[in-house]
Amino acid sequence: MMNYKLMNMKVFGDERGKLVSLESNKNIPFDIKRIYYIFDTLPDQVRGMHAHKNLEQIIIAMDGACQFVLDDGKNREEVWLNRPDVGLYIGKNIWREMRHFSYGCKLLVLASEYYDENEYIRDYKEFLNGIK
Ligand code: T46
């Protein structure tokens, strides 16, 4: 099994609307060290195209939709993110590509580590060599 999973978040809903709570080491399986968000995306643009040596993340489409391609060097799988109550957990050493963004798609990302460009693998051949 590839080191990613879709996680259904518990929704507290009533006549006023809905609420989801995210807590380190409870429904989020790591200490949250960083939060970032992606917005003003465009359908013809591709993001990602990298893997992480150490980082774990959970990505939630707060609004709109986009597709993730996930690749462990052996298999490639496609996952759509299109609900604010579903998180995509991506573990270490998974190549990701993000594409088919809807206009105005907003992604919220919870990360287990501070930003470190040295921890990215942005070359696909290097990624494949690293997991051999
Ligand atoms: C990932 C996917 C889902 C920072 O300075 N700090 C940060 O915390 C981040 C995430 C990025 N940046 C800078 C680095 C680049 O100059 O922001 C610029 C855009 O980052 P990048 O091209 O890596 O963005 P995406 O959308 O391709 O990838 C991002 C995350 O970097 C990555 O970890 O898994 O979202």
Automatic annotation (TrEMBL):
It comes from Oxalobacter formigenes OXCC13. Residues 2-129 form the Sugar 3,4-ketoisomerase QdtA cupin domain. This is WxcM-like protein. It holds the Pfam family FdtA. CDD domains: cupin_QdtA-like. InterPro entries: QdtA_cupin_dom, RmlC-like_jellyroll, RmlC_Cupin_sf.
